[in-house]
Structures are given as structure tokens and as C-alpha cells.
Amino acid sequence: MSKIADTHASAHKQQSAALQPSDSKPDCTPFVSIITPCYNEQKTIHLLLEGIYHQSYPRSAMEVVIADGGSTDATREVIQTFQSSHPDLAIRVVPNPQRITPAALNRALAAARGDILIRLDAHAIPSPEYVARCVTALEQGLGDNVGGVWEIRPGSDRWVSRAIAAAAAHPFAAGDALYRRAPRCATVVDTVPFGAFRRELFDRIGLFNEQLPINQDYEFNARIRQHGGVIWLDPAIRSVYIARPTLRALAQQYWRYGFWKFRMLLRHPKTVRWRQAAPPLFVAGLLGLSAGALLAAPARVALALVFVAYGSTLTGAGIHAAVVRRDPGLAAGLPLAIATIHLSWGSGFLWSVGSHLIDQHFSEWIVPSR
């Protein structure tokens, strides 16, 4: 059995019998709509649905609204099979012809019936008390957007997949993103990966921005903060996140993150954090030193020193992780995964900057037609 398939079972083994589903809550229990963007997720969608089905929150007070972008694999069949075998959980599928995440979220929002909306992705598995804890935090007024922390699991049994999962939560790759590092206490943060909101929040600040296929969560949270709202992270609200299985998929993911992060910062420049600025600065420095190395010896020396320092840091991190986790594959895999994250994010960000500047330059020469 693959590690992805084991994920669902291990997520529930740690919970006591007292956390099993119950309909003992009073009739005033808020109705919750779980909204999920989805496209070609046949390998993981059943894990999400199983996780929702085993919530401690009453199923009669929940529904799942999946916005599917026209999946070409067996995703729809998996959902239909689950619906047939679990008729006591309301599941609806709505179309998302635009095939981008913010449009999927907005389509699901329009179809949802709940007073409280919880966003979960198709490759995530919520802990059994996820919904109940989100609802409680919102009811207590702790935040306008409530979320929790990720337990990042590998996308396959291969050593490189284990390294990618470890890198995604490593401070050298994730920086100070608390939802990846599980703080001890609940706290106010600038973003959470999956949010829980009251419906009225969208009336105040608007829907998800469909001009940002990536980073729409961060942009949405920036608008919440601009309107005086609070983003609340509770480490007791936990979910399993299944990481990308290959370095190629990881590179594509983080290149997109970097590209759209700059486009998001054009709208909210004050939201930039050091963890977001470091990769593009690093890549820009490498490019500058590489160009200079063609002309001057000092630049060649500086470039060599950067490679030695960076390589030594990554090697040390890999060896440390391999010893602590007792996984020899991390010694080589973790440095590769972290370097992929840094270089892909930084390159995507710089490409976005360059393409934006070119667009701006040429737009000045465009004469409007009469």
C-alpha cells in the first residue's frame, strides 16, 4: 500500500473514540459548507472525502461543494462512488469552466448553503476535529479567517518524495510560515493555507480575486487585514497536506508561486515578507555574479564562495535531517528539494518582474485606435 493511501488511516488512528462523528449537537449548530477546488485529483479526492466524513461535527450540519474544472481522469467517478456509499453526507459538484482555483472557490461559494464556509483542497486530509474547532474559533470571535497547521506527507514512497515533504516544512525553505512549522500556541498570523469564514465576510471584502490563479489565498487575507480583520492560526486545527511527488512537479509549483507572488505584491506591496524576498534576491545575485565572472576574477571568486556556502548549508541540513528522521535518502534529497524551491520561486518571481516591466514599457508606445 502506498504512503498516500496510508495517510488517511494514520490521521485517524491517533484520535480517541470520543472524537468519532456524532449528531448530539443542538439544533442551533451552524450549517457548514466545505468548498473544494478540484481538477484531476483521482488519487487523493477520496482521502479528503473520507476525512470530512469522519469529522466529529454532525454530518447533518455539513455539505461538501466541489468545483471541478472538467477533470479528465477518474475524479468524477471516484466522487460518485463515494456519494453512493456514503449517502448521509451531502456532496455536490459544480462546474468550473475557467479551471483556476479562485474561480473554483467563487463557483463553490455561490452554490454553498452554509453560514460558515471552510476551504479545503482536494489533496488535503482534515483531522477529525477540524470542522468543529474552526466553527468554535469563529463562534468565539477569535478571527475573521481561522485556520491551522499542515502535517506535510510525501506524495509517494520514493526517497525524493520523502525529501520534498521534509523540505516543504524545513525552516530554510519555508522561512517563518507558521502553518508549516506548527507553533505551540494559537496566534495572529498574516495567512493560513485553508480558511474558515463566515459568509458575511465576503459581503464586506469581496470574493477571491480571479486575476490571481495562484496566491489568491494570501491576497484575500491581505484584504481581510486591510479591513481591520484578524487571521487566526490554531495549531490544534490540523490537516495533512500531500506534497508534490517529483522535483519537476515541485519546480513547476514553486515557479508559479513566485510568478504570481509578484503580481499579488503589485496590489499589496506592504505585505511582502523576508521569506518571499530572499529567493528572488538570491537568484538575482547568482545571475549577476555569473555575468560578472565572465569578465572579472573577483566575481568568479565571489560566485565560488556563494556556491560553497550555499552547498555546505544545504548539505548540513540534509545530513541533520537524515540522522534525526533516520532516513538516509534525505542526505541527498533534502538539499535537492530545497534548492529546487529556492531557484524555482526566485526565477518565477524575477520572470514576473521582467515580463511586467516589458509590458509596461511597450504599453507606453501603444496608440489607442480611433
Strand arrangement within the widest β-sheet reads: 3-2-1-4-8
Number of helices: 14
Rg (CA only): 22 Å
What is the total domain count? 2
| Largest sheet properties | 5 strands, mixed
What do the pLDDT scores average to? 88
What shape does the CA trace take? globular
- The level 1 CATH classification of the largest domain is Alpha Beta
Task: Tally the beta strands.
Answer: 9
Percent range of helical residues: 40-55%
How does the helix and strand content classify structurally? alpha/beta
Q: What letter string, H or E per element, gives the SSE order?
A: HEHEHEHEEHEHHHEEHHEHHHH
Strand fraction equals 5-15%
Oligomer: single chain
Low-confidence stretches: 1-26
- Any idea of the CATH topology of the largest domain? Spore Coat Polysaccharide Biosynthesis Protein SpsA, Chain A
The CATH architecture of the largest domain: Alpha-Beta Complex
Structure characteristics:
9 strands; 370 residues; 52% helix; alpha/beta; 14 helices; single chain
Could you characterize the architecture of this molecule?
By secondary structure, the chain is an alpha/beta fold. The chain has two domains: 3-245, Spore Coat Polysaccharide Biosynthesis Protein SpsA, Chain A, CATH 3.90.550.10; 266-363, no CATH class. Helix content is 52%, strand content 15%. It contains 14 helices and nine strands. The protein has helices spanning 3-13, 45-53, 75-85, 101-111, 130-139, 159-168, 171-174, 178-181, 200-205, 216-226, 247-267, 274-293, 297-325, 330-363; strands at residues 32-38, 62-68, 90-95, 116-119, 124-126, 145-153, 187-189, 196-198, 231-242. It has a five-stranded mixed β-sheet with strand order 3-2-1-4-8. Strands 5, 6, 7 and 9 form a four-stranded mixed β-sheet that branches. Strand 1 (32-38), helix 2 and strand 2 (62-68) form a beta-alpha-beta unit. Helix 12 (274-293) crosses helix 14 and helix 13 (297-325) crosses helix 14. The protein is globular, with a radius of gyration of 22 Å. The N and C termini lie far apart (66 Å). The model is unreliable at 1-26 (pLDDT under 50).
